[in-house]
Structure formats: C-alpha cells, structure tokens
Amino acid sequence: MADADSQRCVSALLNGITQRLYYGNTEITEEFLKNELYAEMTEDEFRALHDKMRSLLKSIASADMDQAQLEAFLTAQTRKQGGGAVSPEQAAALARFWKTHRSRVRESLLAQSRWEPALRGLKWRVDLHTSASRGQVSSSPVALVELELGRTGESSEFVCVEFDEQKVNLVLKKMAELQESIDSIVHRS
Predict the structure, then answer these.
(1) Which of 3, 37, 142, 173 has the most Cβ atoms closer than 10 angstroms to its Cβ?
(2) What are phi and psi of 34, to 5 degrees?
(3) Which InterPro entries does the UniProt record give (predicted)?
(4) How far apart are CA 16 and CA 14, in angstroms?
C-alpha cells in the first residue's frame, strides 16, 4: 500500500473509531471498517491495528493533547520496539486527524461527562431573621440559596434552601471532607 493510501486508510479508520466512540454512531462497526478499509487483512491483523489506533486515540483525547504534546507522544510511539510501535505514516495520519477533530472530540467528551439535570445557576445571600414562627423576635443570620437546575433543551427548575449558621457550618464541613477525598484520589494516581 502506498504511503498516501496508507494514511488515507488510517485516517478513515480513526474517523470510524471516533464516530462510534465519541459521537455514538452505532452503524460504524469493526466489521464495517475492516470490509471497507482493510479487506485484504486477516481478522487478527485488523483487530490489532484497530485496537492500537483506538487506544492511541483514547490516550490523546483523554489528555486533550495540544500539538506539542501530540508530537512528543507520537515520536515516543514511533520509537517503541515490537508490535506496539506506530509507523511514521500512522503517526502522520494521527497528527493530521487530531488537529482537525480535537475540539469536536473534546466537546463530545464534555457532553458525555455531564450529569443531568445540571446546575445552571446559583444565587445566595445572607439575611437576618427578624421574627420567628411563634412571634418571638430573633436576629440570627440565615443563608438563602437559590439553585437553578435543568436539563439540556428544557426550562429550568428552581430550588430555594434556607440555612442557619449551624447548617452552613455542616455543609462547609462536608465540602471539606469531599475535597480531601478528591485530593487523596488525585494524589494517589
């Protein structure tokens, strides 16, 4: 296969993998890609190539590599010994593909990682309670928090919560514990 043909097939393979992996196009299957692009390859050869390209693409996408990072990564991949090495044609196709598709893949990853309904907005203020429920006068501060929640393409719902000083301290304590848990996980890896 000529270099241009090889790069074209690798680019098409990367596009097919991206369509399925990041854009949810279930019509693009491994079998379809093999029959359309690499009909002359055995199943095992194609599976090895497909898995290698998919793995590389996932690594590049999860790191959201810029051009300098990508160049260093691909250089390291081409210098590998054995079956895991990337050919210069494959590296060139990956670089060209990522330059074109980086922003769209990133948007897809962000969309896949969002929880629904999402927090769209938050407003808060501190007020003084001037009267209590039984006519008693109280001047304790309260925090009023308004959360705007909604799903993509739908109108928002609003939730209003009132916290006294004790509840605010409890929420802050829980948030600190959550931050400590996240930090311990991040620093372990």
Answers:
(1) 37
(2) -65, -50
(3) COMM, COMMD1_N, Murr1
(4) 5
Domain boundary among 84, 113, 142: 113
- Domain limits at 183? 118-188
Instruction: Give yes or no: residues 77 and 127 share one domain.
Output: no
Distances (CA, A) of 119 to 48, 147, 159, 181: 42, 7, 11, 22
**Domain total for the chain?**
2
Asked if residue 157 and residue 85 are part of one domain, the reply reads no
Residue in the structure block whose two tokens are 């010994």: 81
Report which of 121, 167, 170 is spatially closest to residue 141, judged by C-alpha positions. Answer: 167
Contact 116, 151 (CB under 8 A): yes
Residue 29 phi/psi, 5-degree rounding, is: -115, 165
Q: Is residue 7 classed as helix, strand or coil in its secondary structure?
A: helix
The helix (run of H) or strand (run of E) holding residue 31 is helix 30-37
Q: How far apart are CA 102 and CA 108, in angstroms?
A: 10
Cα three-residue angle 173-144-161, rounded to 5 degrees: 75
In which element (H, E) is residue 17 found? helix 3-21
